[in-house]
Amino acid sequence: MFEEVDKKKVLLDRKRPLPEYTEKSIREHLLLEWTYNSNAIEGNTLTLMETKVVLEGITVGGKTLREHLEVINHRDAILYVEEIVKHNELLTEWQIKNIHRLVLKGINDNYAGNYRDQQVIIAGANHIPPEPFLIKEQMENLIKWYNSDAEKLHPVEKAAMLHIIFVGIHPFVDGNGRTSRLLLNLELMKNGYPPIVIRNENRHKYYNALDKAHTTGSNKDFLELVIEELNKILDLYINLIK
To answer: How many beta carbons lie within 10 A of that of residue 138, not counting itself?
Structure first.
């Protein structure tokens, strides 16, 4: 299942370090695509070009303050994730809360970085997240799993499972989706893979794969989606450095 991405990663690693401006242009492209798609999946109505404009510090008429903040916050969360990767920091609950705090900064400061104290449901899903009093224990178990059994998994599978387990717990009242995709890419980047983009046009496939994982225990569909997107990003890199 991982042979193709592993071969492409080896090819990419042989070309590192990439030329400065090639690396810079790819990073800017991915930051924009990642931010636009992750927000669009959650209902943000800014287009790709409007997202680019907001990242450049310009306000888009007719759009809400929240939609503008979602763009700026997501960029800041990506920068924080990059710092974690750069310094090879261990994943902790504190880091996860910090990522979420950046995602919700100025949008819902009361819950930014704080676990939910209310029961929620996930729209359109059969899976029901745990009650609030169970969240702390389940998040602690997630970190324990990450540092033990997860070490035996292929890095791409570990990243996908981190996303699946986290979003199943749904520890925050809002911003779980964005945070889960940031965690997915954090784990990929820690292991030398580029970040992937779960595209808005694939959101139904994405949601169905997650719900299937949570209700049946079958992670195959979600893992295949992650591998599919990872192949696309690796191909982008490889085609640019040929």
So the answer is: 17
